[in-house]
Specification:
Helix 11 runs parallel beside helix 12. The chain is an alpha/beta fold. It contains 21 helices and 35 strands. It folds into three domains: 230 residues, 3-Layer(aba) Sandwich (Rossmann fold); 214 residues, 3-Layer(aba) Sandwich (Aldehyde Dehydrogenase, Chain A, domain 1), CATH 3.40.605.10; 188 residues, Aldehyde Dehydrogenase, Chain A, domain 2, CATH 3.40.309. Strands 2-1-3-4-11-10-9-6-7 form a nine-stranded mixed beta sheet, with helices on both faces. The protein has a seven-stranded mixed beta sheet with strand order 25-26-27-22-21-29-30, sandwiched between helices. A six-stranded mixed beta sheet has the order 18-17-16-19-20-33, with helices on both faces. Helix 20 links the parallel strand 29 and strand 30. The chain starts with a strand and ends with a strand.
Length: 692
């Protein structure tokens, strides 16, 4: 894909910045991306290979401990813009990407690096402050600086349209002035003094994008050419985000490096005590505000989620709604379960438990339900006062960036939540870094690997893993059609890509034929197609590789006597589509009944008793959920009590309640999210014996 230059939006003559880069400049390998604080499209920063910080309204004085009232101050500042562009600059330095700062952009870089500004030039305004048009003045470059090398000029003329300047006695440490105004010695540009480990950076006080005869002026044209060259020479490792419905590339994002991850962890580590010191009630309000933002932006969030994981749009909306329901319970019960708990209170003695945060935790998350499985971890972690390094799956990274944006918009500090962008190699680096806890959602194979890798650190490691969840339909059910529809939904919702999907069904022989008939009718009624189309229930799989897994399972089942009553193969054409598939005459020597499918396939097996059903339900290495449909609650509880699973369902399946612990047995993982256990799982209990 093309390299991208991100230009920060300014209300003042913004088109000049865009038009400065001509079609010839951009050729066929660079394009412009507008980074707008008004749209808050902070996620687009991650796709850029270089940045232009533009001119405009003064930087807010709070950024450099300046006076709020000064001559020629604007009628209104824009803290929203300041913070947005701070994100741009911080990211550019984290990834060592080219930056060109112009006028206000130069002043912002100086204050972000720790410098101050002259708030108004006073008499100098006669030379520098714009009247109707830009003023012109001469400048002198400092020999042997980078700017001197780039322009090839020692002196020249530039335009001027500013009333503030970099303070000559308070230029930020590490910045080197490289050009001065010839008359009053105002600093007109700077660069890094030590460029080791740094990307291209030039900041100038003039406006090269709107200079008179800018094509002939080296203080415009040569700077632009050098910036373009720096962008073209970036060689960042990119992560392609692919739409599974169309196989089109949505975007490319810069992956984190070992160095950038270390810097992000250092940010979290150095400031995590500040977030932990925020009153619990205030943390609760921030998380509740995050939930409100999810609702306000639901349509956009659902569209992004559908574009990268392929689930039908209504199911994406449902997921956002589900996340809000979990947040409501977690935030509403945080003070109850995270506040100090007095166990003994008697004359001369108090014994209490204090629930202290773990510290800085690493959340390696999954793609199938990024809002739900993410909410299970980072919400209680933040509520408990932890800082979080959140790694969304590479298949749901755009959603991860939307989550980051809204958390920070809600009030979670930049220093308390960081996102790691990348695939497996990024995850490997995270396992090497010194976190205070690891929380993973994904497959058994990867979870086992993570657990073994971090075990020597002796920090908490919680793994929410896969399942091969069984469902038993007893002989006393009355509404066979309704049960068939409900259980088919439990097996095929989200294309079967749920850790708690129904993955194998056992049906009592007395109702077997009628149940299978209604089940197949239900599956046949579903609309398949683009997940953005109204009414579509079956969209594409998220991962192309899973198509071969499903092919192998179906071929293996047929070869061992299974009969395909619906589906059974990939759907030709663009996208990762697989027909919803029903296999009967299933048996436990088939891969379909043993290995996690994670797709729209189901095996159905006839049984002659509850005892046989229990024996088969137990015949698995997994233990996440188990379901029973029967008219008798006592019968259901008896059966479920014999099955080693973290959750038991009676007359329902594939559902989660925030009030109940979500946990697995055996290869389905260990530890708990949700409920009071999930809140306290992100704390270290400390006992206090207080006498006196």
């Amino acid at each position: 894909m093309k390299k991208k230059i991100g230009i920060s939006y300014s209300e003042m003559l913004f088109e000049n910045y865009v038009n400065w880069f001509t079609a010839q400049d951009l050729a066929d390998d660079i394009e412009i991306t507008v980074l707008s604080y008004e749209k808050n499209n902070v996620q687009d920063i991650y796709s850029c290979d270089g940045f232009v910080l533009t001119g405009g309204v003064d930087v807010h004085p709070s950024y450099y401990n300046g006076s709020a009232d000064y001559v020629n101050r604007p009628s209104a500042f824009s803290l929203q813009r300041d913070r947005f562009e701070e994100n741009i600059y911080r990211y550019s330095q984290l990834q060592q990407l080219p930056v060109l700062g112009i006028c206000r952009g130069m002043q912002l870089v100086n204050v972000l690096e720790g410098g101050k500004l002259v708030q108004d030039l006073g008499n100098g305004n006669s030379q520098h402050k714009k009247d109707v048009i830009d003023k012109q003045h001469k400048v002198a470059a400092v020999k042997e600086t980078f700017l001197h090398t780039v322009t090839g000029a020692v002196d020249g003329a530039v335009n001027s349209a500013h009333h503030q300047a970099v303070h000559p006695q308070a230029i930020a440490p590490g910045l080197l002035p490289n050009v001065y105004a010839a008359d009053d010695k105002t600093i007109e540009g700077f660069e890094f003094a030590d460029k080791t480990g740094k990307g291209f950076m030039l900041c100038v006080q003039w406006h090269p994008e709107r200079m008179i005869e800018k094509e002939q002026n080296p203080f415009s044209q040569h700077i632009k050419n050098q910036f373009l060259s720096a962008v073209r020479n970036t060689n960042m490792k990119k992560l392609q985000v692919v739409n599974p419905a169309t196989e089109e590339i949505i975007t490319e994002l810069t992956q984190d490096s070992k160095e950038s991850l270390e810097q992000k962890l250092a940010t979290l580590r150095n400031h995590h005590a500040k977030w932990g010191a925020v009153a619990l009630a205030e943390r609760v309000k921030i998380i509740q505000r995050f939930s409100e933002l999810l609702e306000e932006h639901k349509e956009h969030l659902a569209a992004v989620l559908t574009s990268e994981v392929g689930k039908p749009l209504q199911q994406s909306r449902n997921e956002v709604n589900g996340a809000r329901a979990r947040i409501k319970w977690l935030a509403g019960n945080a003070e109850k379960y995270l506040s100090d708990e007095v166990m003994v209170e008697e004359p001369g003695l108090t014994e209490k438990i204090s629930y202290e945060p773990l510290g800085v935790i690493c959340n390696i998350s999954a793609w199938n339900y990024p809002y739900l499985v993410g909410t299970n971890v980072f919400i209680p972690a933040l509520l408990a006062g932890n800082s979080v390094m959140y790694k969304p799956s590479e298949y749901a990274v755009l959603t991860g960036l939307e989550i980051e944006k809204l958390l920070k918009q809600a009030g979670v500090p930049e220093t308390a939540f960081q996102v790691a962008v990348g695939a497996g190699a990024v995850g490997e680096v995270l396992l090497d870094l010194p976190f205070d806890g690891y929380f993973f959602t994904g497959s058994y194979k990867t979870g086992k690997y993570i657990y073994e890798r971090v075990a020597p650190k002796m920090v908490p490691c919680q793994c929410e893993l896969g399942g091969k969840d069984p469902l038993y339909v007893a002989d006393d059910i009355e509404d066979i059609k309704g049960v068939a529809a409900a259980t088919a939904d439990g097996a095929f919702y989200n294309n079967g890509q749920s850790c708690c999907s129904v993955e194998r069904i056992y049906v009592h022989e007395k109702v077997y034929d009628s149940y299978v008939d209604e089940f197949v009718k239900e599956v046949a009624s579903w609309k398949k197609g683009l997940p953005t189309e109204s009414g579509v229930y079956i969209g594409p799989l998220t991962r192309k590789e899973q198509l071969n897994v499903l092919d192998n399972q179906i071929n293996d089942a047929v070869g061992k006597g299974g009969k395909v009553l619906a589906g059974g193969k990939q759907i030709p054409g663009k996208g990762y589509y697989f027909e919803p598939t029903v296999v009967v005459n299933a048996s436990h020597d088939m891969l379909l009944m043993k290995d996690e499918s994670f797709g729209p396939v189901i095996g159905i097996m006839k049984v002659n008793s509850d005892e046989e059903a229990v024996k088969l339900m137990q015949d698995t290495e997994y233990g996440l959920t188990a379901s029973v449909y029967t008219a008798s609650r006592n019968r259901a509880e008896t059966i479920l009590g014999k099955v080693d699973s973290g959750t038991g369902y009676w007359n329902c399946c594939d559902c989660v309640s925030a009030a109940l612990p979500w946990s697995g047995r055996k290869h389905s993982g260990f530890g708990s999210t949700l409920s009071h256990a999930g809140l306290r799982g992100f704390t270290r209990p400390k006992a206090y014996h207080l006498r006196g």
